[in-house]
Amino acid sequence: MLNEALKKLAQVQRIDTAIQELHRKFASLDPGGKAKQRFDEAKARKEQLDHRLSEIRGEIKDLELENSRLSQKSDSEKKRLYSGGVYNAKDAEAIDREVANLAQRVAKNDDRLLELYELVEPAKLEADDAHQDFEAASRLYEEYTSRYDAIKKDYENKMSQLLGARNKAAAQCDEDLLTRYEAIRKHHHGVGIAPLHGDECGQCRSKIAHHIVADVQAGVSLQTCENCARILYWEEASEEQD
Ligand SMILES: [Zn+2]
To answer: 229 vs 34, 36, 138, CA distance in Å?
Structure first.
């Protein structure tokens, strides 16, 4: 009777071990953190280089506009000077100074514009490169995520099958035995019951005293391994009853 009950408990243990192993394997997988990090970095770089390029282009546009405004102003000053409307020398000098001043500002802007024109092409190349890298990182991230989702689905299916089988197997067990088994496995890495292999504990390989071996074989009383605390059962006896 006891051997039969332990055999049923050992079946629960086999399923629990499978559940534990399945969970361990799944939990060891990266849900996509690395791919996400690569994606985030590529995105940040792309945005940074886009921003830089647009700053350069923005500054060019502003300076070109300003120069066009300054040139118009200079033209209208010159027009005023040569149109014959200015009669006194003081005003003429003032206009000359203003025209010279405008020309200086335009020249200064032109210097900066030359610098900026040089920067556009390399900045554009870098930004293009960042865009390509970002697209590659996006694809990788998407691929990884969909692969992971498939694995997760498979894991969930297997897990629900195992849990169903576990419930069935547990329902066959003696309740007190099951409670004891649960208590032991809780503190011993998920293993609550171990088969006797000859005169050794199948879990920790400790030698078991002869009278206990005989006791377990005969199914007289519940015995545990003195070393690892697992419930001992006689596997050969179980198999004979199959
Ligand atoms: Zn043991």
So the answer is: 41, 45, 52
Q: How far is CA 123 from the centre of its chain?
A: 30
Distance 230 CA to ligand 1 centre (A): 6
| pLDDT tens digit sequence for 199-236 | 999 999 999 999 999 999 999 999 999 999 999 999 86
Per-residue pLDDT tens over the stretch 19-73: 999 999 999 999 999 999 999 999 999 999 999 999 999 999 999 999 999 999 9
Within 8 A by CB and 6+ apart from 228, the residues are 188, 194, 201, 203, 204, 206
Ligand 1 centroid – CA 5 distance (Å): 20
Residues with CB under 5 A from ligand 1 (ion): 201, 203-204, 206, 225, 227-228
53 CA to centre of ligand 1 in angstroms:
69
Q: Identify whether the C-beta of residue 25 lies closer than 8 Å to the C-beta of residue 194.
A: no
Are the C-beta atoms of 151 and 26 separated by less than 8 Å? Answer: yes
